[in-house]
Amino acid sequence: MFRTSKKRMLLFSFLVGLKRTDPKAFLLVVICITIQLFFTFIKLEATPFVLFGMFSEKVMASDTFSTIQVLINDRTLESYNPPFRETQLLEINAGNYIGMKRNNQNDILKTRVETGYPFIYNSVFYPFVARQVYNTPKAQNDFKAWFKEKCNHIADIDNAVVKIVETKYLLNRTTLYPSPLKHEILEVF
Amino acid sequence: MKYWKFSDYSYFVSTNRYLLQRVFYSLALFSIVLNFCYHILISQVGPNPLLKQDVDPVYLMFMIAGIPKFISGWPAPYFDALLVLSCLASIIWPRQRTFPSLFFVLYFIYFIVYNMLAGHHYTNIGLMIMAFPFIFSGNPRFVTAFTFCRFFLCFMMVSAACWKIARGNLWHVDQTNMLLIATHLEALVSNKSSLEMNIIKWLISHKYPAHALWVFLILIEGLFIIGFINFKWDKLLLVAYLLFFIGGFAIFYIYNFENLLLLLTLTPVLKIIGRFNKPGHKKNFDNPEPTTNL
Hints:
Oligomer: heterodimer
Radius of gyration of chain A: 24 Å
Largest sheet of chain B: none
Shape of chain A: extended
Largest sheet of chain A: 4 strands, antiparallel
Helix content of chain B: 55-70%
Structural class of chain A: alpha+beta
Strand order of the largest sheet of chain A: 2-1-3-4
Distance between the termini of chain B: 18 Å
Order of helices and strands of chain A: HHEEHHHHHEE
Radius of gyration of chain B: 21 Å
């Protein structure tokens, strides 16, 4: 498709050949590259232009750790052997639910926007967008029913007692055993 | 010839388009079946009322349009069925452009809606990106989009390395140690004993070898910069990515099968696929005419 010089770098061969054979596609490709680089630079995600910075944030050394766990009839989620991606889904959602609960039932994104982005908060269209975009306390209430149903399904029980618990651990660096420091039941469905 | 020139790559991709399409959609179907086994199709997840939107404008548009609530409601089983059928149809009738286009749109919606229901924005966009070239009817545009996917794979990896280096991961020895503990905390609490856990425990108690492993993973990511230069090192890139995938999954539980599909753009994989396009098979696949300006 593209007749190119042997010495030219592959990416440039591609772009030069494309410019010659299909200027419209060339323009589109250049726009995509520019958007991806610009968004990466300003740290904005707009799917499919996503950031690939996962696991890059510095984690400071500590011996205390905390987890949010889901217990079904006082047994851990893993003990029911659900597929690992379903486990992830439930644990992440439990964490998000607790996050919103701790934020006085307000969507965390709403707090972020209203405290950090006054130009969005003060704009004319904001009240309309806010109604559509944020999770409401009612959604949080409905979440309990959905979450419980998922847990019932995993445990194959009609009416299980579902708990979201937070445990803080202190890691013994010699034995590598994390001893529980604090165990708190955050929610019971 | 030792390694491919750009014209060889374009010619191969162009002449094996239907075979590539069948391989890609078979793998996409496999990925959907995996998602079914993991109970993460939209109809299996159900209408989670707490949606994770974050600041991504595309997710916000979806929220404004009410798409996640609608799709995860009563239409969910039909949506999933349509996704599977469009994928199957793309395998069975590779000449039709409607099915790949339909699949691309449906998968895009699936990707966004699933991430909102799952409460986390995953970056497993390999399958979605790879579905894009197949929507084009013209061969030159298909080749362009397919080649662009190759550069996307390289960008994805190099960018990930740059993020880690820019945030000082290379010299932060505690990073791997803390990530390992956080990932395997529950296994440590339950005091599991297995070969995998023994290796993890060893890595946790030996900071420097663990950090060397982390640096090695960053180097593997950074290595993909040579993918922008020529095809000469594609075999190395393939092995590097597979090592990265296996290492990431075994040690940090990073699961991204969908991104493996981007490997279809590397020359060793294309050569393997090409072996299946023997003269006997060619009749079945109805190869399109190669691009004219080669």
